Automatic annotation (TrEMBL):
Region annotated Disordered, chain positions: 1-21, 67-110
Keyword line: ATP-binding, Coiled coil, Microtubule, Motor protein, Nucleotide-binding
GO BP of this protein: microtubule depolymerization; microtubule-based movement; regulation of cell wall organization or biogenesis
Coiled coil: 624-655
InterPro entries named in the record: Kinesin-like_fam, Kinesin_motor_CS, Kinesin_motor_dom, Kinesin_motor_dom_sf, P-loop_NTPase
Protein name: Kinesin-like protein
Composition bias, Low complexity: 80-93
Keyword Coiled coil: yes
PROSITE patterns attached to this UniProt entry: KINESIN_MOTOR_1 (PS00411), KINESIN_MOTOR_2 (PS50067)
Residues reported to bind ATP: 276-283
Amino acid sequence: MGRQGQRSGASAVHHQRQYSENLLDASSNGRWLQSAGLQHLHSSNTSLPPLQEYGYCGGQGSRVHRNAPWSFNGGSEFLTEPSTPPDTSQPSSWRKNREDPESPSGFSPGLLDLHSFDTELLSETSVPRLYDSPSLCQAVPGKSTDDFEPFLANNKQTDRIRGVPDNNLLRSFVADKEKASNVAKIKVVVRKRPLNKKELAKNEEDIITIEPRSSFLTVHETKLKVDLTEYLEKHEFVFDAVLSEEVSNDEVYRETVEPIVPIIFQRTKATCFAYGQTGSGKTYTMKPLPLKASQDILRLMHHTYRTQGFQLFVSFFEIYGGKLFDLLNDRKKLCMREDGKQQVCIVGLQEYKVSDVETIKDLIEKGNATRSTGTTGANEESSRSHAILQLAIKRSAVGSESKPPRVVGKLSFIDLAGSERGADTTDNDKQTRIEGAEINKSLLALKECIRALDNDQGHIPFRGSKLTEVLRDSFVGNSRTVMISCISPNSGSCEHTLNTLRYADRVKSLSKGNNSKKDTLASTLNLRGSTTLPLSSVLPPRPTYEDDIGDSWPEQSDGEEIDGSIEFEEPEKSLSKKNGRIEAYNISNLEDKARKVNGQTKLKVPTKFDSKSTHSDDDLNALLKEEEDLVNAHRRQVEETMDIVKEEMNLLVEADQPGNPLDDYISRLNAILSQKAAGIVQLQTRLAHFQRRLKEHNVLVSSSGY
Ligand SMILES: Nc1ncnc2c1ncn2[C@@H]1O[C@H](COP(=O)(O)OP(=O)(O)OP(=O)(O)O)[C@@H](O)[C@H]1O
């Protein structure tokens, strides 16, 4: 029985009801399933078992996994086993090994999923329903953008044969499009684990109550008044879904990953990850997901898309101490590079082409056995690295079958290392504490990326950590993310739990996109680099500050007369600089053009001399504007960094004892701050320089009589 019931009469001093803006109704399950075309699964009376419960039959229809075959749609191609029923009858107490039969022994250690979707691509393509019958799926296959035209043509033909009018096909196509575009960019799900033996032995209370099948969750925090009497503070939260300790891993999969599996065939990158305190159940939650997803992917590949030539590749690596190691290749050290298109490549990473679930299972187990683990105060077998398992769908272009296949979509599962506060690490050794600091840093960076992603910001701060750098291509475009926040129910974890829930809530509540426009320019000008479109490919490069620092201004063409005034074309110079600068200047170039179109910079200067002089002036104005933008961008960076540092400091402050090994880390953060501050001073000096020059030019222009 939940604590809420027991304490309903207690004074609720503080209410913290936090609503996720994506909440549409009391049952987010329905919404998500609906958005993925799986709404029929939401009903408890559904006649179809969940997808992951089908034994997968290989491409030839010859493979059967597990016993208890179940015939689907009258066909022999699908066989399944009975589903794991939701364990709703059990009391809310610790039940070791009560979970679905695959875990923990049947699957390798857990993985956190970060799934992202590309709605642009989705909107162009049909998203098949996982439960479509094979014949239906074949008749209406989803296709990637490349195949869009033939896809429609093929389906028209098929539907004619089946006697379905063409407009029905189109209608369902449009419906699928709508569903796909309705998928939220970020889905935040909370999972509560049961009390464990240790907690029960200590008579710890379960302080989390969850309304059955709802998205509401309450944390009952015990607090002390000044007179030392206890009182309860209630913190209420609402998320896209809240999963109680009764919920099985099968249900977690259905709620989180299953709806997004079909979309990765539509050139979508999806990422799913679990976040939470050490020992809160991240690994337990993530463990079965990749295998279940692989099962579904293979089913789609071998049935729905069997003629499409899709291939599935698996890779598995970890990030430990800021370095990458291949978990499927004896922990070989890997390095990460960016190619010309700013795509992150992990050089040397082994990718395995797979076509059956057993092979994937073996690979996952192998990788997990190789993973770095350690012991923390809260978890004896704590994940000390971020493990990233990627399922990539690839395909060779038509006519280029001999060439390596190209990635169509990707599903990344990330089993994050446990987040912990400094206080948890006091009984740990130096190594563990340094690991903890590194882990916290990457988790903060991850949060920043998710926020930027959901706000449609032009700049995603993926360089904040190795983790986010590696995930860069999952953050760009209209990607989608599923975050599973894992929480421990015991009173001793209350503060952690509240932190986790606030983190989750922040990720969700910042999804308003209010500041996207405002942020885009500043972000694009970010000196650290950004994921913005390569504007240099669209616009001619402009001279950089360094190139223009001399007094000789390049010759420019005469302006074109419009409405009696002279409108000058932007000079097209070919001085190229580093990406950041070129992008910055190009942005200004765009802005200048926009201003000119609005007539704001039209100057009535009839003579050649005046024209040139004014043009110089105009350039100077443009440069000045650029410098201002740079300073603003830089200032923004510093503010962001300060936010991160402040949060980090808060995390570390409790561990701040004499000789603390984390002191180094704090100094490093301070050094970053000073560096940023120095950068601002430098830019301000440059700005002042330009302002002086502008003034001189103004004097020159006015003294010439105009
Ligand atoms: N929902 C659950 N039902 C039953 N047991 C669970 C559940 N969640 C977690 N556990 C158990 O709790 C223990 C800790 O879980 P787990 O290792 O998944 O935590 P974690 O968050 O991954 O920790 P770390 O971050 O330190 O790696 C494990 O023994 C696991 O089996």
